[in-house]
Design goal:
The protein is mainly beta. It has a single domain, classed as YVTN repeat-like/Quinoprotein amine dehydrogenase (Methylamine Dehydrogenase, Chain H). Strand 5 and strand 6 form a beta hairpin. The protein starts with a helix and ends with a strand. The protein is built from 2 helices and 35 strands.
């Protein structure tokens, strides 16, 4: 490991607050730690290392470039070296593509459409291109729901496309793929045969597939290490379940989620935090064990007020959640569940937040669907510093690399920098 990579990894750990913990996320290592190669960045939790990122912007202030994006989608941009990758859906979901842009000026380099099987159902908050792609610097991997998992090279050539079966979800498919060693892992809960599965990165061949009994979910899993054991964590309808990421065998489960689950779990202070449902519960779970560990491994539980769509974030011992039903941010003491503060972020439209928060230079950024970003000072009291505004609907979470923000709005890709 290079000195720069080691420093980056240590900073990520320090930012997350789990430097001495036995439970931690498996974060991106090597060159990928410099970029934003996956959903919620190299940490998988929205942490941004480094300085020089502006905390103020508008449609004109600190805008370095702005380009139109064909079609529509809520997937986040990912970044590797001088490339940005993004998925999109055109013609009402009849044409699904992966796009590549030049990071320096926003020029569209290529657009590659994938082979489709009809049109999957969608939703205004989901659409047909909601899953964020991932990259290892060699290939880009994207989930297109019922149309399968696709791998492309950096020139836009399709290397493989693996079938996952016909998906029947009443709001369409969403969850993003993740890496584990030489595997791409994806879970899809729907009205047919739900599953979590692993595919070989190079060939697309399915390595394992485990059937699930849950029927509703749009989330993205995480892989953690819990006291020396790797665990694949899936938070979905009714429960949180851990699998062996090498084989797909079930390790443990915790009951308590509500019916509809979207947020990605977050990890810190030896705990896994899972939020569920329309203002449902947040569970703080001690991973490990075997079988149903609901009665023994739930350390604390907040019975209501959890986010429906956005994921949580941990900063300096505090767990921040945004209740997107009422636009209320809550800060918990992560280890105990004690509420430190609550505060309202703007108006309170129902389901008003979709993007997940990020933390940059001691500030926590929450972006709502109307393009407003609320900048909070990280700390034990509610301190709203200011609000940035785009005149564009914004459901996708941003990517941040080398002092620049990359936002996807409903119609554009925007680069923010000093």
């Amino acid at each position: 490991m290079s000195k720069r990579t080691l420093i980056t990894a240590l900073l990520l750990i320090a930012t997350a607050g789990f430097g001495k913990d036995k439970v931690h996320m498996l974060t991106v290592e090597g060159e990928g730690a410099r970029y934003w190669p996956s959903w919620r960045g190299p940490s998988g939790q929205g942490y941004v290392v480094g300085s020089g990122y502006p905390d103020r912007w508008s449609d004109s202030e600190n805008v370095l470039w702005k380009v139109a994006v064909p079609g529509a989608g809520n997937s986040s941009p990912i970044v590797w070296d001088d490339r940005i990758f993004l998925t999109t859906a055109e013609d009402g979901g009849r044409r699904l593509s992966l796009l590549s842009y030049c990071r320096s000026d926003g020029k569209l380099l290529w657009k590659t459409a994938v082979e489709q099987k009809g049109i999957e159902r969608g939703h205004g908050k989901n659409g047909h291109a909601s899953a964020t792609p991932i990259t290892d610097g060699q290939l880009i991997y994207a989930s297109f729901g019922t149309h399968g998992l696709v791998a492309m090279d950096f020139d836009g050539k399709i290397m493989w496309q693996s079938e996952v079966g016909t998906l029947d979800n009443y709001h369409g498919s969403a969850g993003s793929p993740i890496f584990y060693k030489d595997k791409v892992i994806l879970y899809q809960d729907h009205q047919g045969q739900s599953f979590v599965a692993a595919f070989n990165k190079k060939s697309g061949e399915r390595v394992w597939r485990t059937e699930r009994t849950t029927r509703t979910g749009w989330g993205t899993p995480v892989v953690i290490n819990a006291d020396g054991r790797d665990e694949l964590i899936v938070s979905s309808q009714g429960n949180v379940t851990a699998y062996n990421p090498e084989s797909g065998s079930e390790l443990w489960t915790v009951m308590g989620n509500k019916f509809e689950v979207i947020p990605t779990p977050v990890v810190g202070h030896d705990l896994v935090f899972a939020s569920s449902g329309r203002a449902g519960p947040t569970l703080a779970i001690r991973p490990g064990g075997s079988g149903d560990v609901t009665d023994t491994h739930v350390v604390w539980k907040s019975p209501k007020g959890a986010p429906f769509v956005p994921s949580a974030i941990i900063v300096e011992g505090q767990l921040y959640t945004i209740n997107d039903m009422q636009a209320i941010v809550t800060s918990f003491e992560a280890e105990t569940g004690k509420v430190l503060f609550q505060g309202r972020l703007g108006n309170a439209p129902k389901e008003g937040f979709s993007a997940s928060p990020v933390v940059v230079d001691g500030k926590v950024f929450f972006t709502n669907d109307e393009g407003e970003t609320f900048v909070l000072k990280a700390g034990p009291t509610f301190e709203l510093l200011h609000v940035n505004r785009f005149d564009a609907r914004t459901l996708a979470s941003p990517a941040l690399v080398d002092g620049r923000w990359y936002f996807r709005t409903e119609r554009e890709l925007i680069c923010i920098g000093s």
